[in-house]
Amino acid sequence: xxxxxxxxxxxxxxxxxxxxxxxxxxxxxxxxxxxxxxxxxxxxxxxxxxxxxxxxxxxxxxxxxxxxxxxxxxxxxxxxxxxxxxxxxxxxxxxxxxxxxxxxxxxxxxxxxxxxxxxxxxxxxxxxxxxxxxxxxxxxxxxxxxxxxxxxxxxxxxxxxxxxxxxxxxxxxxxxxxxxxxxxxxxxxxxxxxxxxxxxxxxxxxxxxxxxxxxxxxxxxxxxxxxxxxxxxxxxxxxxxxxxxxxxxxxxxxxxxxxxxxxxxxxxxxxxxxxxxxxxxxxxxxxxxxxxxxxxxxxxxxxxxxxxxxxxxxxxxxxxxxxxxxxxxxxxxxxxxxxxxxxxxxxxxxxxxxxxxxxxxxxxxxxxxxxxxxxxxxxxxxxxxxxxxxxxxxxxxxxxxxxxxxxxxxxxxxxxxxxxxxxxxxxxxxxxxxxxxxxxxxxxxxxxxxxxxxxxxxxxxxxxxxxxxxxxxxxxxxxxxxxxxxxxxxxxxxxxxxxxxxxxxxxxxxxxxxxxxxxxxxxxxxxxxxxxxxxxxxxxxxxxxxxxxxxxxxxxxxxxxxxxxxxxxxxxxxxxxxxxxxxxxxxxxxxxxxxxxxxxxxxxxxxxxxxxxxxxxxxxxxxxxxxxxxxxxxxxxxxxxxxxxxxxxxxxxxxxxxxxxxxxxxxxxxxxxxxxxxxxxxxxxxxxxxxxxxxxxxxxxxxxxxx
Length: 707
Fold this sequence. Notes:
Blueprint: E1 2-7, H1 11-22, E2 28-33, H2 36-43, E3 50-54, H3 62-70, E4 80-84, H4 89-98, E5 102-105, H5 110-144, H6 150-163, E6 169-174, E7 179-182, H7 184-190, H8 202-205, H9 207-223, E8 227-235, E9 241-252, E10 258-267, H10 269-283, H11 293-305, E11 311-319, H12 321-328, H13 330-347, E12 353-358, E13 361-367, H14 372-385, E14 390-392, E15 395-397, E16 400-408, H15 415-431, E17 436-439, H16 442-463, E18 467-476, E19 482-493, E20 497-499, H17 505-511, H18 514-535, E21 541-545, H19 548-553, H20 556-567, E22 574-579, H21 580-599, E23 603-609, H22 615-621, E24 626-629, H23 631-636, H24 644-658, E25 661-665, H25 670-679, E26 683-685, H26 695-702
Parallel strand pairs: 1-2, 1-3, 3-4, 4-5, 16-17, 19-21, 21-22, 22-23, 23-24, 24-25, 25-26
Antiparallel strand pairs: 6-7, 6-10, 8-9, 9-10, 11-13, 11-16, 12-13, 14-15, 18-19, 18-26, 19-20
């Protein structure tokens, strides 16, 4: 029968753990304890094979309890599992130092719990059986020393033969320190001739080993009390380092006098390796093997305690990783993160700390850096390390990094300040198109605070419905009729009035608020289009702009089709406008949704066409219904020395050949309109015809009423 102790102050946990533990095998008995002191009292007079203890309890925590258990000689090697909800490395190290064997995190995975219990029970029962055999044999050895008659000598020989079958280091020494017995396991471990070992302890594991054991033996001889739980490292015959836990007991003669010391050492190498592995995992990232956030925090605190020695903290965020991870899959993304970690590791000094904070974020603690020049050199090295494309799974993938740098003590005096300020500096690089580095400055902190304040206002604007949609008409140059409108977001900001997206769009993008905002615009524009469809003729097609973040994070097809179904707008009356930058960076991710939406009748348009260096490539990969000539070409088309008019002419001809409608946006003068008409551009949009207007004005325009 195997006995498991469950020590937890919460009855729900005790019940669940006891039930799972008891299901491991039919002969397993789980004994629950609410109070750790009661458990210790019970253990003083009973046997158990495994202890499962909660870390946080009122009377004493799991580490203190473990230490108290280890202080009891017969419980020196019983497996102890500590259960904790804390993910902090400090908790795990404290428990490990106290002697914990393993950890489990809540909420508990029942299958993992059952497997761990099963394995540790096997270990405990094996150790318990071995301990019992060793104690019994030790007693026989002590009795064999009482008499020198032939029968007892024969018994001792038989005893030695039995001892030789035990996988433990067993030896005995007299009061003068001479080896009087050495088991076969010990001779096999050392590779020495058994005849060499009795009488010469130095020959076993060397002089240092002999001196250490002489001191321990003398302590047993002086006090008459056993010593247990002594850990030592030993090199075996193959040069492999192994760890043993040693127990020393006094040998007495028939009169009760101590005549020597019996030493028993059990191999706990695998247990120690498991503990080291747990300690490593507590401070390292499992994917890359780099130190983790907790490890970095510890090192930063250590550096801060160093006083006046300056250092630099680099906050590293990969550019475009999200698109790669979403487009090619998480397995590919994990491979890329490992490859990035390898390059970064090779580019930093051995004494510095490179850590993975999570996702695609890394950090570098550059010790001994007191100037911007020293830190800038390392930041440049980091960027250069990522310049060459990564070859993974037969694909060439390019990824760069935005690096923010905070210097100690200039930019912060605490771990939190330095990480925050390095993160802020990194964001400035990323907002400015990425691939570079920047040092933290005080004005960045002010802008970051303003950004946070603006984020809060935008959230409130969503809740209080402060956003409105205005619509800029699109006209047929030949007939002069309105053929569609572009939905344009406006914010009726309290105390300011109606503002355009230019004042808040970047913050909305960075914070992710652009997703609910754009979803609202889409829904409102479709609702308004249905209202026009019912009240006017002919119906208007409404164009809605799509954000890059919607391509990255949302199922665009599902979102659009849900809105169309909810509002009742026919798909052919909706047009989605995508900038060329979306197609340049996310064409592969965007293509499936766009093709499916187009198949269902939704129109697709490319805004700002002609500005991207690979516009024609996009038209080949993704079929569209309309392109909008960037207003920069329209504004400069009549300037002396400008090449814009030939470009406009080429786009119009391209649209004609590919059966794609062409819209000229930003038309502000009669001269521009006349030239566009002559070049064959039929659709226009701009201030010459109308600014963006509220829905009521658009309704009046459609009815031919003055506005």
